[in-house]
Amino acid sequence: MKPSNPGVLVGLVVVFGLVTWGVLQQTYAVLPTLPWTAIPTTLLLALGEAYTGWLTRARILRRPDTKPVEPLAVARLAALAKATAHTGAVFAGVFAGFACRVIDMLELPKPRQDALIAGGSFLSCVILICAALFLEYCCRVPGKPEGEE
């Protein structure tokens, strides 16, 4: 498995942002208000992934008072991190498209609320992507010290 490519993640955000913006041009008036619960949920997921990465890195480096980690568990965590980064990019694109759609209607209460929620959700998705990339980084096997072959 190769590390996540930031270009692919940015591409997913852009493509899904444009698709969402295009779809909302026709359907925004009939949609309910965005739920605010996406923000804390995504932030909790990011916190969990970052904490898991921190613990996993300590176990991989065999720091004192840590148990060695199973290689299969690390592979599963790396796959989770990659999937989370891509999913976070897709949802970040959706929320970015939503925010771009309502940005010109901020004088109305419903679009203003949707813009705030979409913007906060976009930021929390970016934080989730960063946490996933951190977890992916923490799952790497450290290189050999210099002088060892």
What does this molecule look like?
The protein has helices at 6-27, 38-60, 71-102, 109-138. The chain is mainly alpha-helical and 149 residues long. The mean pLDDT is 92.
Put the structure in a nutshell.
This protein has 149 residues and is mostly helical. It contains 4 helices and no strands.
Structural topology:
Elements: H1 6-27, H2 38-60, H3 71-102, H4 109-138
Helix pairs in contact: 1-3, 2-4, 3-4
Total beta strand runs:
0
Basic shape: elongated
Unreliable sequence segments = none
Give the N-terminus to C-terminus distance in angstroms: 24 Å
Task: Estimate the strand proportion.
Answer: under 5%
Largest sheet: none
**Average of per-residue pLDDT values:** 92
Structural class: mainly alpha
SSE series: HHHH
Fraction in helix = over 70%
User: Taking Cα atoms only, what radius of gyration do you get, to the nearest Å?
Assistant: 19 Å
How many helix segments?
4
